[in-house]
Amino acid sequence: MCGIAGLFHCGTPKPVDPARVKAMCDAMSHRGPDGEGVWTGPGVGLGHRRLSIIDLAGSPQPMASADGRAMLVFNGEIYNYRELRSELQAAGARFRTDGDSETILAAWQKWGPGCLSRLHGMFAFAIYDADRRELFLARDRLGVKPLYMAQLSDGSLAFASELKGLLAHPLLRREVDPLAIEDYLAWGYVPDHRSILRGVEKLPAGHYRLLRHDAPPAKAVRWWDVSFAERRREKAADLEAELLFRLREAVASRMAADVPLGAFLSGGVDSSSVVALMAEASRDPVRTCSIGFDDAALDETNYAREIAQKFGTDHRERVVSAGDFTEIDRLAAMFDEPFADASALPTWRVCQLARETVTVALSGDGADEAFAGYRRHRFHAAEERARGILPAGLRGPVFGTLGAIWPKADWAPRPLRAKTTFQSLTASGEAGYARALAVVAPELRGGLYSPAMTRELGEYRAEAPFIELMANAPGRSGLDRAQYADLAFWLPGDILTKVDRTSMAVSLEAREPLLDHRLIEFAATLPEGMRIRGGQGKWLLKHAMERHLPRDVLYRPKQGFVTPIAAWLRGPLAGEARAIARGASLGRTGWFDADRVAALAEAHISGRSDHSRLLWQLLMLDKSLARLGVA
User: Fold this and answer.
1) What pLDDT, on the 0 to 100 scale, is given for residue 402?
2) 2 in active site
3) Could you state, in order of their start, the residue ranges of all structural domains in the chain?
4) Sheet holding 148-151: strands in order across?
C-alpha cells in the first residue's frame, strides 16, 4: 500500500519541478513510510511513497519497465500477479523483481488499457509511456483505492492518492464547491462525483483516463461495471457450494504478504466469516483485534471474543471512550474533505491496535452491499412490493397524509418509527431509497441554509444524482437497483474512504476479501430469495457459514460499528455542540442559519430530540474547513 502523486502537461510538455512532486508525496508520508522516489521527464513527473508489503527490498518506485520505455507509480495490491507473471514470461516478458508492480508494467505493454480486466486486486496507478507519449491513470473496479485529480492554471494535470497531496501544490485553487456542501449534508460524505473544492475531481471506481501531450484532457472511461440483470437458476445447495469456493478463493488470495498479517474482528457475520476461513487456510493462529465501547448497549466484544476462542486466534481488544473525541481534529485531518461517518473513530482505533503487531489486516467490508445485508434493503424490498400493489395515484394521498401527521418518534422502538416509511412510499422507489439512505432529509437541509446559500444551490438537490444512478442501474428489481447504487455510490464514498484513510493514517494495509470482484459478480446474479428470506438479509451467506459459525453470531440483529455520539454530544461534547452554530470556520461561511442550528443543538442536549448525526456533521465540516484553510 502506498501513496502516489504526479504532474502531467496535456499541451506543451513543460519541465516539471521534481521538488513539487516530492512535496505532494511528502504530504502523504503516512501512506508510505518505507521508501520514496520521484522521476521526471519532459512534461511529466511521478512520485511515490512506499509501504513495503511484497518483495520488500526489490520493487522500488517509480519503476521503469524492463525496456525503460514506461514508468509506473502504483498504490494497491494485485493478488493474481504470479499467474499473470507466468503468462507474460511465456510471451517473452523479462522481469527483474519479484513483486506485482513490474507485472502491471509488462501487462500494460502487452495489452494496453485491456490489462485492467486481467488485474485482480485493489489499485490506483499511473503509467507514463514514453513511446506513446501517454499517461494512463486507472482505478480498481470498486474504488478501494482513491485517486484525486485537478487541472492547474499552468496547464498541467495534478493527481494524488489523497486531497492533501494536491493541496501541497501552490497552484491548486482552494474554493469550496457549494454543491458539495449540499451533498455532504445529505450523505455525511462528499460522494465520488464531486469534491469539496471546485476543480478537483475523483477518478470514479472502475474507470481510467488516457492523457496525451498533444491533446486536450480526455474524459474518464468506464472499464468495469457489475450487472444485477441476470439470475442464477441452480439449486440452493449448488449456489452455496460455489459461494464457499469463491469465499475461500478471495480470502486465501489476500493472505499473501511478506510482512505480518491479521484481521479485524467485530463479532459480526462478515468479519467472523473472514476469520473462520483465514483460520482454515493458516497453520499459525490468526492475529485478530477488536474495538469495544464503554457503552454496554453498543459493545460487541463478547461476540468477537467468542469467535476468537472458537478459532484459537491471537486476539487483542481495546475500548473506545468519550475521551477519545479529543482526537477529532486528527480525525478531520485524515480525510481532508468533511467526513461524518462516526464509525471512523473506532475504525481508526482498531487500525492503530492492529498496526502494533501486523502490517496487513483483512476486513469484512462489502458483504452487506453485495448480499443485501442492510436493514434498509429489507425495508426497500417490502416497500417495492407495496408500490407494485398500490398505484401512485393512491399511494400519494394515503401515505402522504400519514407521513405528514405521524410523529418522528426517535425515542420509539424501530417498528414504530413509520414516518420515514410513509414518506418513502409516496415517492418512486429510487426517491424513496435515497430518502432512506440520506442522513439529513431535504426539508431539514433546506431549513438550515441561509437565504444566500439557498440562492447559490438553486434547484440542485443531493439526491438527484443518486436517483438517476439507481434508475439507470442494470437490474430487474428495486432491490437490484438499491444494491447497485450502494456498490457504486455509498461503498466508495463512505465505507471504502473510511477504511482507506484510517488504515493509511497508521501505515496499515487493509484488504477486503468480500469485495473480490468475482464474488461481487456472483452475488449480483443471486435470486432475491437467496439474498433476503424470512426477514433475514445475506441469507445464502449465513446459510453457507452455518457449519463454521455459531448461530448467535449468524442470526442476531445486525449491530454495525455504532458509536454513541448522541450521548457524547449531550455529555462530554455538549460544549462542542453548542459552539457549532457560531464556530469560527463555519460561521464565516454564511451558509447556515445560526439561530436554527443553535436551536437544534439545544433540543438535542436537553434530550427533546436526537440531532446527533446532524450536529456531528456540522462539527466535522467546521473542523475540515479549518484544515483546508478556506474559511
Assistant:
1) 47
2) yes
3) 2-176+200-222, 226-515+532-563
4) 35-41, 44-50, 2-9, 156-160, 148-151, 200-202
435-450 exposure pattern, b = at least 16 Cβ within 10 A, e = fewer: bbbbbbebeebeebbe
Catalytic site residue from 2, 10, 25, 289: 2
The three-point CA angle 405-410-414 to 5° equals 95
DSSP state of 415: G
CA distance 581 to 548: 50
* Residue for grid cell 526489490: 58
What residues have CB less than 8 Å from 262, skipping those under 6 apart?
Answer: 286, 287, 288, 289, 314, 354, 357, 358, 360, 361, 362
Q: At what angle do helices 478-485 and 429-437 cross, to 10 degrees?
A: 40
Lowest mean pLDDT among 133-142, 167-176, 352-361, 419-428: 419-428
Amino acid at 191: P
Q: Residue 586: CB partners within 8 Å, gap ≥ 6?
A: 580, 592, 618, 621, 622, 625, 631
**pLDDT-wise least confident of 18-32, 215-229, 311-325, 477-491:** 311-325
Residues 6+ apart with CB under 8 A from 238: none
- At residue 24's C-alpha, the angle toward residues 22 and 28, to 5°, is 105
Residue 412 has pLDDT above 60, yes or no: no
* Under 8 Å between Cβ of 259 and 359: yes
pTM of structure: 0.93
| Beta-sheet pairing, 360-362 with 509-511 | parallel
pLDDT digits (tens, 9 = 90+) for 127-154: 999 999 999 999 999 999 999 999 999 9
CATH architecture of 2-176+200-222: 4-Layer Sandwich (3.60)
Residue closest to 365 by CA, chosen among 561, 630, 72: 561
Cell of 627: 484544515
Neighbours of 410 (CB within 10 A): 13
CATH superfamily of 226-515+532-563: HUPs (3.40.50.620)
pLDDT for 51 equals 92
